[in-house]
Specification:
two-stranded antiparallel sheet, mainly beta, about 150 residues
Length: about 150
């Protein structure tokens, strides 16, 4: 498996995302964990692999957002989707992907464009709710959301 340089992380506001055309966005949910049993989870998975897995997609998004669960309880990250891969086929940086208990046959790996991951200065907070699994939205809704319920 090819290695990937650890993601460069930029901090920006959602206002700065207005330069991109509106399009389909996927918001995935994460736990704020790091490394466990030689596997990366949550935010660390995203930052190590510049990718998110493993999702059974029915649309191909242009944009990616990551909701980090409690104690953060907010959408913290944004990225540009580079490609959607079947982890069983082709090359990708995630070693031993079958060890992840969330992986199921047919799930995809969302690869993000190099240096496109943004940690938001203006995270989108929860208003008591949470994102479970993933949800689709649009970039315009993401930019203008006051809480995750607006997505």
């Amino acid at each position: 498996m090819p290695s990937v340089d650890k993601a460069k992380l930029y901090r920006k506001s959602r206002e700065e995302l207005k330069k991109y055309p509106n399009g389909v966005m996927i918001i995935c949910t994460s736990i704020p964990r790091t490394k466990l049993d030689d596997r990366y989870y949550g935010e660390q998975f995203l930052l190590k692999y510049r990718a998110w897995g493993f999702v059974n997609l029915n649309q191909e998004p242009y944009y990616f957002g990551l909701y980090v669960s409690s104690p953060v309880s907010a959408v913290r990250y944004f990225g540009l989707v580079d490609k959607i891969l079947d982890p069983r086929k082709g090359e990708h940086p995630v070693d031993d992907f079958r060890k992840y208990e969330i992986y199921e046959s047919g799930d995809k790996l969302i690869m993000l464009e190099k240096d496109s991951i943004i940690e938001l200065n203006d995270e989108i907070p929860s208003n008591g709710g949470a994102i479970l699994g993933f949800r689709y939205t649009t970039l315009n809704k993401f930019i203008n959301a006051e809480t995750i319920e607006d997505l």
